[in-house]
Amino acid sequence: MPNQQYCRIVGNENGRRVDSRILEERIQEAVADGHRYLEVEAFGQHGIGGRLWRAGDEPVFVRIYGAPGQRAGSMGFPNTHIEIMGSASDDVGWLNAGAEIVVHGNATNGVANAMAQGKIYVAGNIGSRGMTMTKHNPRFDPPELWVLGSVGDYFAEFMAGGIAVICGFGAQDPDNVLGYRPCVGMVGGRIFFRGPHKGFSEVDAKLVPIDDEDWEWLVKNLRGFLEKIGRREILRHLSRREEWQLLEARSPFERATKPRRSMDVFRREVWENELGAGGLIGDLIDFDRSPIPVITTGYLRRFVPVWENRKYVAPCEATCPTGIPVHERWRLIREGRIREAVEMALEYTPFPATVCGYLCPNLCMQACTRQMSNMVPVDVRQLGKASINAKMPEFPPLTGRRIAVIGGGPAGISVAWQLRRQGHEAVIFDMERTLGGKISSVIPKTRIPKDVVDAELERVRKALPHIHLQQRVKREHLEELKADYDFVVIAVGAKKPRILPVPGKERTIPALDFLQQSKQGQIGVGKRVVVIGAGNVGCDVATEAHRLGAEDITLIDIQEPASFGKEREEAEAIGAKFRWPVFTKSITEEGVELTTGEVLPADTIIVSIGDQPDLDFLPETVATKQGFVVVNEIYQTTDPQIFAIGDVVKLGLLTDAIGAGRRVAQAIGDILANKVPGGDKREMIDYSRVKVEYFDPRLTRFADIEECAEECLSCGACRDCGVCVTICPQGAISRQETGNGEFEMVVDEERCIGCGFCAGACPCGVWNLVENDPME
Amino acid sequence: MSSNGRITPSSLSIKDLPWQIHWDKERCSLCGRCTAVCPVHAIELGVHRLRLVQTTLGLKEAPSNVYGVYYGIRQKTDPAHACVGCGMCNLVCPNDCIIPYRSDEADKLRYHIDRGGQPRRRGGRRNVPANILDRIKFIRISMLTDPALDAGRHEFELRTLLGRVLPPEENLKLLREEGWIPPVREIYPLIIGSMSFGALSPTMWEGLQMGVAYLNEELGMPVRMCTGEGGCPPRLLRSRFLKYVILQIASGYFGWDEIIHALPEMKEDPCAIEIKYGQGAKPGDGGLLMWHKVNKLIASIRGVPPRVSLPSPPTHQTKYSIEESVAKMIQSMYMAWGFRVPVYPKISGTSTALAVLNNLTRNPYAAALAIDGEDGGTGAAYNVSMDHMGHPIASNIRDCYLNLVKLGRQNEIPLFAAGGVGKHGNLAANAASLIMLGASGVQIGKYLMQAAAGCLGSESDRCNICNIGLCPKGITSQDPRLYRRLDPEEVAERVVDVFLSFDTELRKIVAPLGRSTSLPIGMSDAIGIDDQAAAERLQIKYVV
Question: What is the pTM of this model?
Answer without folding.
Answer: 0.84
